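Case study: Sigma-54-dependent Fis family transcriptional regulator.
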Amino acid sequence: MVEQEFDTDFNRRHGPLVRRAVAIAGSLFDCSAIALHGDAESAPRSATRSVRLSRGARPSLSRTSVGLVEMTYADPLSEAALAMLLAAMAGPDDPIAADPESLSVFALADRLAASDIPVLINGPTGTGKEVLSRFIHARSPRRGGPFIAVNCAAMPETMLEAMLFGHQKGAFTGATQAGEGFMRAADGGTLLLDEIAELPLPLQAKLLRALQEQEVVPIGATRPIRVDLRVIACANRDLPAEVAEGRFRADLYYRLNVFPLTLRPLRERPEDIAPLAFAMAMRHAPDPARVPCLGEAALAMLKLHAWPGNVRELENVIRRALLLVHGKTLIAPEHIVFDSPARLIPAALLAATAVPVADHGRKLSSIVQHSEARAIVETLEACGGNRLRAARELGISERTLRYRLAALREAGIDIGPHSLRGAAGARR
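Here is what the predicted structure looks like once written out:
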């Protein structure tokens, strides 16, 4: 954070929220030029970005001018307020995260950035592998050099070699001028090879030699050209299985796999969903001065979804919601439309696994919670109380299932003693 003194009133009104946000944001992006101040104060002149905080019954978020975000929130201890502030503090290229799983990966990547060793990032499509790659580059001594991202699956196979290693004029039909190629373009910086498993075997051998010798031989050339770059490779397929099947060279795999990092699916990082959703709302809002906020019920719906498309699907959902909200200031559940229809529980099954509503009323967030509880109860019973199997059936990790069970109990929802025994006796 910018060095600034918060007065007593600011600390009383905003201190609990600001301390939580700064503890997370400081591990993700450079906070040295960000100022947080109250609605009656002005930002320090040295700040390049500032967030003006105020308390109010109705949350609001707006980018009123270049570098200034105004934010109103009700509860400093709520997940929505923390998510909103993280999104408001982040720059356009900064990573967004709040889940302990994600924060541990970024902490490890920060330590790794200081070295120059190759990195292999594994994870399903749309989990943010390029964002993590850019984070490593930005924290590395090479941050002043270029960052070149290459999608190996998006380039024509016949042009891959020329695009990677370059070519001389006249080296092949249509080569009317020389091309330096991506590896030479990344000289002094970082080269990201996304979807590395799609690289053809013959080209894998040439890439291996280029990485080992730190030199490339352009098509049509007879002499190698030295390059100085760091390679980060990303894969959404199981590379050890690809090696075993003979589709990926073992020597290249071990060359790239010096330090592996893994990004888990979004459904296994539930605390990332809210800050990512607010950041996307700010990015895509038609009017930056009037960004619709996500209500608690809408956030509950987002956290219950399985997210087969990961962060990319979340971005689709938020962009749809911004269109459907049509001038309103609050994104509600009726504005949330998922890429694939949610699986509904039959009415007979709901009656068989009914959960007492107690005194929670008929608020939509309460209805969503009870629907989740019924789905969990039914799945646990079908799996004989085996928590690991139940998690697989629900499309979430066992860790996430434990988190959901604990959250339901803390919310005062009775999920039944038989289900609790099943959850506790999962490891038999």
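For the exam, be able to explain this: The longest strand covers residues 49-55.
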